[in-house]
Amino acid sequence: MCGGLNRSRMDIAHIAILLIIIIVVLIVVFLVVNKFFKRRTEGKKDSEIEEEKTEYNFSGLSDRQKEIMKLLIKKKRPLTQTAIQKELNIPKAAVSRNIGSLELKGLVEKENIGMSNLIRLKKS
Q1: Looking at per-residue confidence, does 10 or 104 come out higher?
Q2: Which residues face 111 on adjacent strands?
Q3: Residue 18 and residue 74 in one domain
Q4: Are residue 21 and residue 51 in the same domain, yes or no?
Q5: Smallest Cα–Cα separation from 95: which of 111, 107, 82?
Q6: What distance in Å separates the CA atoms of residue 120 and residue 76, rounded to the nearest whole number?
Q7: DSSP letter (8 states) at residue 56
Q8: 24 and 78 share a domain?
Q9: Are residues 8 and 56 in the same domain?
Q10: Are residues 15 and 28 in the same domain?
Q11: CATH number at residue 78
Q12: Which helix (H) or strand (E) holds 55?
């Protein structure tokens, strides 16, 4: 009877050691993957990382133009120039000027609807 009890304790000890090894391996894998991801994004600003997630090329755009593009991408629907102005809290003339530049670069389309302009992302 005593031999069976010792064997049971040894089995429990082996299982505990195996669990500890598995946990250590998982931690090491997590740290390696995390370090790889950090190295990949090292030196990049959050905005640059966010831009990589979209299908649009933000290079050569001003900060305001990037803001407008990100807003249109986030909203996933066309917006009026007035809505863009209010959402980003920038002057009407600045919105108009930047929308014109984005239109010339082929990133947005402007549709006149009565007294308003509806701005939508152009399919890339």
Answers
A1: 104
A2: 118
A3: no
A4: no
A5: 82
A6: 9
A7: S
A8: no
A9: no
A10: yes
A11: 1.10.10.10
A12: none
Instruction: Give yes or no for a contact between 99 and 117, defined as CB atoms under 8 angstroms apart.
Output: yes
Position 5 pLDDT exceeds 70: no
**For the whole model, what pTM was predicted?**
0.56
Question: Is residue 39 classed exposed, middle or buried when 0-12, 13-18 and 19+ CB atoms within 10 A define those classes?
Answer: exposed
Amino acid at 80: T
The token pair at 85 is 């102005």
Query: Which domain range does residue 31 map to?
Result: 1-42
The identity of residue 58, as a single letter, is F
Q: Which pLDDT does position 28 carry in this prediction?
A: 92
Same domain, 59 and 113: yes
Arithmetic mean of pLDDT, 9-36? 88
Single-letter code of the amino acid located at 16: A
CB < 8 Å & 24+ apart, contacts of 86-95 = 88/64, 90/64, 94/64, 95/68
The token pair at 97 is: 């000027």
Tell how strand 116-121 and strand 79-80 pair up.
Answer: antiparallel
Residues 1 and 57 in one domain: no
